[in-house]
């Protein structure tokens, strides 16, 4: 492994019992949680206007008028926050040959038979699909969202275009909430994952089990956690 | 002459329209008990309109609205479009009849049509912000309106306007407050030629029949009533000289209906969307119950420690 495969800045190994592996920098974690909180607020405020049975959720934002006002602004925050994450993570999320193998053995993935899967880099195909799915859907949502942002942009498009934007926005929102459910469920199901986004670290065993290629590369590139000169 | 609605008494009259008259309420279930009232209608006879704009003035006055002073745009249509203050607007069209080569001045009083199947109400996400009374009037409740503009997308006639001041939707109420006490709308009251008449929908259809017969006898062979079935009929109807071509009257839709995109968005998407999200969450929960957590084993940790120890020490670093 000569050229860096998909190491990201800040990734490092700390020997010990257990081995600790730095996975996300403080910046990446803050970036992630700003995006996460925005997405959750957007989902709640959006669902409130999506189905009458959920309209009561507008109470969390100070009523219907406030929900209508604030929802697009949270969308703007999410867009820029996610743009930051995109710039951080896109390279490690490029599709690799082992991702195809992983996809073909999706049954083993679901059953938790990790030993039957190829060694993976920093992200598996599922994580990559969450990443690209989020990226695509956020583009669709911000574009259609601006079209239906009544207070500022209503005069720039025709009503017919706004109707299409409303339908597209609703469908994309349903899709992104499903992607989000997959994302959150995977973090809960695969134990030892959440610490990556809280303290920034995972155990060596977690890295060995789920992202062995990344772990091997980290170890052999001698990006140990000791402070000092970087790898040659 | 259509018998005018008599002037009201000066004594207070209890309103005849209340919540008990609502047949539909936006983003809500159907009301259980409705006291049905005779459907009303406003009939606008385009052939009798002289374009005086008394109706526009009466509308502003009755509803205490103040239109901003605008700029002249080269036509009699003033203001150039409906606004949150101008709930009705005379739209002027100069049309050359290809059959006679005559210039015809078509003046259509634009405003809410009070559809029997209201697209605005179906699109509205705020419970009770748009209501339909059993007499056919579709009304906005501004206390509940959130200013999202969905009604604008739902309307097949491009009628509601959102105020940039209070961010609420405005349109003609068919003077529901006047109708509630047995009066006709302000525009009808002000019309000097009876181009606007008001009564029950049955009466208006009968009256229109007589007008159409008269127009036909004067050579308008395509004269007819505009009561479009695509929206279940309307409670504001037009008598048109050329009912075969409604669109010549400043773009009156030939065959209006709620956009299929809006129907899809408010229909199948709403239910399937919630279903799909619920299914995703349920599938996760079920998977966890059946398969259990994906845990890192002690062997994984041991392997990691072994690899880290080997490589990092052979690398000659701390």
UniProtKB/TrEMBL annotation, chain A:
Domain of life: Bacteria
Alphabetized SUPFAM superfamilies for the sequence: Transmembrane di-heme cytochromes (SSF81342)
Keyword Heme carried by entry: yes
Record GO biological process: anaerobic respiration; formate oxidation; respiratory electron transport chain
Domain Cytochrome b561 bacterial/Ni-hydrogenase: 23-200
Stored Pfam families: Ni_hydr_CYTB
NCBIfam families recorded: formate-DH-gamm
Family stated for the protein in its record: Belongs to the formate dehydrogenase gamma subunit family.
Stated name of the protein: Formate dehydrogenase subunit gamma
Organism in which the protein naturally occurs: Xanthobacter flavus
């Amino acid at each position: 492994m000569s050229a860096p495969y998909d190491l990201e800045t800040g990734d490092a190994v700390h020997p010990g019992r257990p081995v600790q592996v730095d996975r996300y920098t403080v910046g990446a974690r803050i970036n992630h949680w700003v995006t996460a909180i925005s997405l959750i607020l957007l989902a709640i405020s959006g669902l409130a206007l999506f189905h009458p049975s959920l309209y009561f959720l507008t109470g969390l934002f100070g009523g219907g008028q406030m929900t209508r006002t604030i929802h697009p602004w949270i969308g703007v925050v999410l867009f820029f926050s996610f743009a930051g994450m995109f710039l951080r993570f896109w390279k490690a999320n490029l599709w690799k040959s082992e991702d195809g193998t992983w996809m073909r053995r999706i049954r083993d993935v679901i059953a938790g038979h990790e030993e039957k899967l190829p060694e993976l880099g920093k992200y598996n195909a599922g994580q990559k699909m969450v990443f690209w799915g989020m990226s695509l859907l956020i583009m669709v949502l911000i574009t259609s969202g601006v079209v239906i942002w009544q207070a500022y942009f209503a005069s720039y498009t025709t009503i017919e275009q706004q109707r299409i934007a409303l339908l597209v926005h609703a469908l994309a929102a349903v899709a992104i909430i499903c992607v989000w459910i997959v994302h959150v469920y995977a973090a809960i199901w695969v134990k030892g994952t959440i610490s990556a986004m809280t303290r920034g670290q995972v155990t060596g065993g977690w890295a060995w089990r789920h992202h062995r290629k990344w772990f091997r590369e980290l170890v052999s590139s001698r990006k140990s956690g000791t402070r000092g000169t970087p790898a040659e | 002459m259509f018998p005018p609605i008599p002037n009201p008494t000066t004594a207070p009259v209890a309103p005849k329209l209340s919540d008990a008259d609502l047949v539909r309420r936006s983003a809500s279930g159907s009301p259980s008990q409705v006291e049905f009232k005779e459907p009303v209608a406003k009939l606008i006879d385009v052939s009798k309109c002289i374009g005086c704009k008394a109706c526009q003035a009466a509308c502003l006055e009755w509803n205490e609205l103040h239109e901003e002073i605008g700029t002249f745009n080269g036509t009699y249509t003033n203001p150039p479009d409906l606004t949150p203050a101008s709930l009705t607007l005379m739209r002027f069209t100069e049309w050359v009849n290809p059959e006679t080569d005559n210039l015809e001045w078509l003046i259509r009083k634009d405003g809410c049509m009070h559809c029997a199947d209201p697209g605005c109400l179906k699109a509205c996400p705020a419970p009770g912000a748009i209501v339909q009374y059993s007499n056919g009037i579709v009304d906005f409740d501004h206390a509940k309106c959130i200013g999202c503009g969905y009604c604008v997308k739902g309307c097949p006639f491009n009628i509601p306007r959102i105020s940039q001041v209070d961010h609420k939707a405005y349109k003609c109420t068919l003077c529901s407050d006047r109708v509630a006490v047995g009066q006709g709308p302000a525009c009808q009251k002000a019309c000097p030629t009876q181009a606007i008449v008001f009564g029950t929908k049955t009466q208006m259809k009968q009256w229109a029949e007589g007008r159409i017969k008269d127009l036909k006898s004067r050579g308008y062979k395509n004269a007819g009533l505009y009561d479009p079935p695509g929206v279940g009929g309307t409670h504001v109807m037009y008598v048109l000289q050329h009912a075969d071509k409604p669109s010549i009257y400043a773009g009156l839709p030939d065959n209006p209906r709620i956009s299929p995109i809006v129907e899809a968005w408010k229909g199948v998407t709403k239910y399937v969307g919630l279903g799909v999200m619920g299914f995703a969450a349920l599938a996760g929960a079920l998977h966890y119950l059946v398969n259990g957590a994906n845990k890192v084993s002690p062997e994984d940790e041991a392997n990691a420690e072994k690899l880290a120890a080997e490589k990092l020490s052979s690398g000659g670093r701390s």
